[in-house]
Amino acid sequence: MTRRTFVGIAGGTIIVAGTGGYVLSDKNNFIRTDSNVGAPGKSFLNQDERNILYLASLAPSGHNT
Asked: Domain map of the chain by residue range?
């Protein structure tokens, strides 16, 4: 078995296993019932929490450069 054949078989196996796992999973876990995104005027955070997140987004970091 050559390296190219092995990598092809291993990659295909990983893709098939991942796709099968997703298809067979319980997709209800991906739906949040504690939030109502579509509600107008509804906010998940109070004003202080929004201000903290805004100021945190301005903080310098290696990822923001």
From this structure: 1-32
